[in-house]
Structures are given as structure tokens and as C-alpha cells.
Design a protein that fits this description.
mainly beta; Immunoglobulin-like; 3 domains; 10-stranded antiparallel beta sheet; 6-stranded mixed beta sheet; 28 strands
């Protein structure tokens, strides 16, 4: 009998202990998140150059609630309305719950998203809430109406080294520009071979971040295009042998510089569309290409061609603006000649991509 009572006593103690443990256990349960509620202040804004350095826009939001004290990080996503955030620009803000934008930054952001400079358009904005790589949520979409202004395009300015002295401030003829406000820059440079032994030394400096891009590798020639790897903050870039007048493309996201030595020509009705009969010469005093004593006939047409072909060529859009017309897009319209006579034709590529112009005088 004592043995039975002893066993019952042990069972009672064990049950009591188990029950106590269950009562003391604290469970963490993740519930469906309460997502950020976004506030735009203001919800519509007209940007101007005068307020470019002012804080003009505040994007704020309530923090996500996952039911426990969570380390959440936030990203502001911005895209042109109607694009469903395809190619959205993303701004990481860590654990903060607001973002202030200067006029210049918002202007560049809006133009980069696809709103034409000097026009009004809508931006879609939403907040990405990240608890982990696998737990990501999004707020509802808010709409910001922005009127942009035309400003200087972001640029990589050329900083000459050794014997090549370049201007100390941003100057046409020494810039590569990004008209789409992204990582891709383009322009035309004339390298005078100031050092005299096969190349010019220079760096590229960002006009927006002051980041310096320098030498990574020597040029490698593939299918007529020279390619150079860049390094942030490194030494002088060398483009050897000295190519003189070149078309330069840089992608700062991949740290890649490509260039092609170029010779421009005028090709049109008046020279039977020859891609070699009417060459243009670079004028270092004006940083322009010129062809003198060119006979043109009213009502006929011409285009600018390069290296004896049309892969690099320039025509005009429907508004008469000079645009790239070569491979692979083959855009543009042939340029109409307004008057008959003998002229000087000037092609100005010194302002960088998006700022190319021509005139007949």
C-alpha cells in the first residue's frame, strides 16, 4: 500500500512540475504585418532651380508591426505612374521612417523616372518593408505630382593628368553626360596627346557625388571597340595608343569605359550619300566639328555619319533635335536643307549626350 501511495505521489509531483512549466512558457508568434501608411508632404510640387538645394519633399510612414519587436528595414521605391514599378528607383533608409529630398535630388529622380524636364507628371511611391530576405511586404501606393525643370545633366568631368591640363570647372568638351539620370554616361572627347608618347592621362569625376574614377586596366580591342575597366579613386586612365577624337561611353555601375575613335562625315543627296566624300574636321578652339565649302540644295536632305558607315550616325527627331540614329535602334529623320548655297556645317558634340547640336551657316 505504501508503495502505491509513493508512486501516486511521484506522478502528482511530475504533473505539477509539467503544468508549471507550461504556464511559464512565453511564445513569440508572428502575426500578419500592419504595413506602413505613407504620407507625402506636399503631395504636389513645382520644382525650380532656385530651390534646388532646399529640402522640398518629405516622405514619411508608420512603421510595420509584425506583433513583436522586429528589426525592420525600409526602402523607398519610386517609379513613373503607370509603370507598375518596372525599373523603379530604390532608396534604402535603414530603420528610419522618413526621407527628406532636396529639390535637385527630386528633380533628378523624377526625370530619371521618365518625366520630361520642364513638364508635370506623376510618380508612384511605395515603401518596401523587409523583416528578412524572405519576409518582405509593401505599403499601398501613393501618388506625387511633380513639375520638373531643365537642369544640367549629371556628368563625369574630365580631369587631365601629367602634361594634359584641363579646365578646373565643368566645361563643354570635357564632359560625359547622363541625360537619363542613370549610371550610363556618354560624350565625345578630343585627346591632344599632350604627353607625346602614346596617350593622355586623365580621371573622371562625378558632378553629383564627386566620386573619382581612374585606371583599372589597359584598353582591350574587341570588334572595333576599346574597353577599359575603371577603379574608384585610383590613378590616371590611359587610352593608348592616343585615339584623338573619340566617342566615349561609361557605365559607373559596372565600372566599364568603352571608346571608339571616330571620323565624322556629311552624307546626303548633294554628294550621292557618300560616307567619305565630305569629311568634318575637329576645331580645338571651339570644340566643334566643321566642314567648310559644302554645297547644299534646298529641299534635299543629309545626315551625319561616322567611319564610313551608319552604325554611328545622327539625324533629327520630329522636333528637329539632333539624336543618335545608328544601330541597333536606327531612329530619326533625315535633316532637311532649307536654303541653296555653299555653307559651313558645324556639329557640336561638346555638351555631352542629350546636348548635341548642329548648324548651317
Amino acid at each position: 500500500m505504501k508503495n502505491i501511495f509513493f508512486k501516486l505521489f511521484v506522478i502528482a509531483i511530475a504533473y505539477s512540475t509539467l503544468t508549471a512549466c507550461k504556464k511559464d512558457e512565453v511564445k513569440t508568434v508572428m502575426r500578419t504585418a500592419t504595413l506602413p501608411a505613407v504620407t507625402l508632404s506636399p503631395s504636389s510640387i513645382v520644382l525650380t532651380d532656385a530651390s534646388s538645394s532646399d529640402s522640398v519633399q518629405t516622405i514619411s510612414w508608420t512603421k510595420s508591426d509584425y506583433g513583436f519587436n522586429a528589426a525592420v528595414t525600409y526602402t523607398v521605391m519610386v517609379a513613373k505612374s503607370g509603370t507598375d514599378f518596372a525599373g523603379a528607383q530604390q532608396i534604402s533608409v535603414g530603420s528610419n521612417s522618413s526621407l527628406k529630398l532636396t529639390g535637385n535630388y527630386l528633380n533628378n529622380l523624377a526625370i530619371g523616372a521618365g518625366i520630361t524636364p520642364g513638364t508635370a507628371g506623376d510618380l508612384d511611391i511605395k515603401i518596401k518593408s523587409s523583416l528578412s530576405d524572405s519576409v518582405v511586404d509593401y505599403s499601398d501606393v501613393s501618388k506625387l505630382t511633380v513639375t520638373t525643370y531643365q537642369s544640367l545633366f549629371p556628368a563625369l568631368t574630365v580631369l587631365g593628368g601629367n602634361s594634359w591640363v584641363t579646365p578646373g570647372t565643368r566645361t563643354n568638351g570635357f564632359v560625359l553626360t547622363s541625360p537619363n539620370y542613370n549610371s550610363q554616361y556618354e560624350g565625345y572627347l578630343n585627346l591632344p596627346n599632350a604627353d607625346g608618347y602614346g596617350g593622355d592621362a586623365f580621371k573622371l569625376v562625378s558632378s553629383t557625388t564627386a566620386t573619382v574614377y581612374g585606371w583599372g586596366t589597359n584598353p582591350v580591342l574587341v570588334n572595333g571597340v576599346y574597353s577599359v575597366d575603371l577603379v574608384v579613386g585610383s590613378g590616371n586612365i590611359w587610352l593608348t595608343p592616343a585615339p584623338n577624337f573619340i566617342k566615349v561611353d561609361v557605365d559607373i555601375s559596372t565600372l566599364k569605359l568603352n571608346y571608339v575613335p571616330v571620323q565624322f562625315f556629311i552624307s546626303g543627296d548633294d554628294n550621292s550619300w557618300s560616307t567619305s566624300a565630305t569629311p568634318m574636321t575637329f576645331d580645338p578652339a571651339t570644340n566643334t566639328l566643321r566642314a567648310t565649302n559644302v554645297s547644299l540644295t534646298a529641299g534635299k536632305k543629309f545626315v551625319f555619319t561616322v567611319n564610313g558607315g551608319y552604325d554611328i550616325s545622327y539625324k533629327v527627331d520630329n522636333d528637329g533635335k539632333l539624336i543618335f540614329a545608328g544601330a541597333p535602334t536606327w531612329n530619326g529623320n533625315n535633316i532637311n536643307i532649307q536654303n541653296t548655297g555653299v555653307f559651313t556645317v558645324i556639329l557640336d558634340l561638346s555638351g555631352g549626350d542629350g546636348m548635341y547640336t548642329y548648324k548651317i551657316q
